[in-house]
């Protein structure tokens, strides 16, 4: 049975039902007028007219009781020709809303009804009447109704698929927004964390050296001003992604690594760099290596200021890229290793690499990663 059966009648349904009622009534009255010369009792002639009008009126309720009204039409058309068109409409209604075998059964009952009609009305050639008129007419109506039913089901299926596709698209969009937010948070942590650590180092140097010369104070102040300005620029670039399409967030490259080291050295951090990575790195691998070194420098300046930092970036195509950042005895509290190192581990996993961190037997803090470098 069709799910739309019994629903509230739409404006289109009102139009269709009105046309069906008027058409069945008009043709029924015409057929009744043509049969006024038949040699049948007057009571049967009157019953034909009344039953036909009743069937036409019942067309307004065909969506509520299609099977019941179709069976009633089978009984009435045994003696009523006025209700013949209404019976056809009711048969088609069954074909529209029910399975094909149900509508075939109703059509077969109507054909039996026509045979009985030929007996009751004493027509001259019942065989020709049944096979030449009733059979193709009723089965044609059933076929038409079945076509309408299959088309409705197809439209409903396409609509449901479209709704599911829209829901999936909305879910994917929400997940994309979530990934974009996570990326923005990670970039803000990586970029601004490093810049603010440089500011902290220089500000701390000024605080602990009240006897510094005017030139030293001016130099440190200039570095602080420059770092603060660069931090604001980085912040504008990161927040700018909110106004730009996803994927346009400014990203550093592996070639920017010496600039990063130089900035830390200007801030007074003793950095030793061993760089041996001949050949072009894949972009995503190089960017991940840059972020690992950046996070290692940030943590070193934050937790172990003025301590030397050793950075080793070595590798070759086919062997992978190894990134090591170590510094002696950092003063790291348990809660200080959270989001930055978790983000690095996620970055390494995204490029199918691995990352480890922790204290060495010598007491150093070591951040080590291996990243794939295809040959």
UniProtKB/TrEMBL annotation:
Its EC number is 2.7.13.3. One of its GO terms (molecular function) is protein dimerization activity. Residues 11-152 form the DUF7134 domain. InterPro entries: DUF7134, HATPase_C_sf, Sensor_HK_TwoCompSys, Sig_transdc_His_kin_sub3_dim/P. The chain crosses the membrane at residues 14-32, 44-61, 67-90, 102-120, 126-148. It comes from the Bacteria. It catalyses: ATP + protein L-histidine = ADP + protein N-phospho-L-histidine. SUPFAM superfamilies: ATPase domain of HSP90 chaperone/DNA topoisomerase II/histidine kinase (SSF55874). One of its GO terms (cellular component) is membrane. Residues 181-245 form the Signal transduction histidine kinase subgroup 3 dimerisation and phosphoacceptor domain. Keywords: ATP-binding, Kinase, Membrane, Nucleotide-binding, Phosphoprotein, Transferase, Transmembrane, Transmembrane helix, Two-component regulatory system. It holds the Pfam family DUF7134. Gene3D superfamilies: 1.20.5.1930, Histidine kinase-like ATPase, C-terminal domain (3.30.565.10). This is histidine kinase. It comes from Kribbella italica. The lineage of its organism: Bacteria, Bacillati, Actinomycetota, Actinomycetes, Propionibacteriales.
């Amino acid at each position: 049975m069709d799910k739309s059966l019994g629903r509230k009648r739409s404006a289109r349904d009102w139009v269709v039902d009105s046309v069906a009622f008027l058409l069945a009534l008009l043709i029924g009255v015409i057929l009744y007028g043509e049969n006024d010369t038949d040699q049948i009792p007057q009571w049967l002639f009157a019953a034909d007219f009344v039953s036909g009008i009743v069937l036409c009126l019942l067309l307004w309720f065909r969506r509520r009781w299609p099977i019941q009204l179709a069976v009633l039409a089978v009984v009435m058309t045994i003696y009523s020709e006025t209700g013949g068109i209404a019976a056809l409409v009711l048969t088609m209604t069954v074909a529209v809303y029910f399975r094909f075998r149900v509508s075939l059964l109703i059509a077969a009952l109507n054909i039996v009804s026509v045979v009985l009609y030929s007996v009751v009305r004493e027509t001259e050639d019942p065989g020709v009447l049944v096979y030449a008129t009733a059979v193709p007419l009723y089965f044609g109506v059933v076929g038409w109704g079945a076509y309408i039913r299959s088309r409705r089901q197809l439209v409903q299926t396409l609509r449901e698929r479209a709704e599911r596709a829209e829901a999936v698209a909305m879910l994917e969009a929400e997940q994309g927004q979530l990934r974009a937010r996570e990326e923005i948070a990670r970039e803000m942590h990586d970029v601004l964390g490093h810049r603010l650590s440089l500011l902290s180092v220089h500000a701390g140097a000024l605080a602990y050296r009240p006897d510094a010369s005017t030139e030293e104070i001016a130099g440190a102040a200039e570095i602080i001003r420059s770092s603060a300005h660069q931090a604001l620029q980085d912040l504008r670039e990161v927040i700018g992604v909110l106004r730009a399409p996803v994927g346009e967030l400014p990203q550093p490259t592996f070639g920017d690594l010496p600039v990063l080291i130089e900035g830390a050295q200007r801030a007074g951090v003793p950095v030793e760099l061993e760089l041996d990575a001949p050949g072009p790195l894949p972009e995503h691998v190089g960017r991940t290596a840059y972020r690992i070194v950046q996070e290692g420098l940030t943590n070193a300046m934050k937790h172990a200021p003025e301590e030397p930092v050793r950075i080793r970036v070595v590798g070759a195509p086919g062997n992978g890229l190894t990134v090591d950042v170590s510094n002696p005895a950092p003063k790291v509290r348990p809660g200080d290793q959270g989001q930055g190192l978790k983000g690095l581990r996620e970055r390494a996993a995204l490029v199918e690499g691995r990352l480890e961190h922790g204290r060495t037997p010598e007491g150093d803090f070591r951040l080590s990663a291996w990243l794939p470098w295809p040959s």
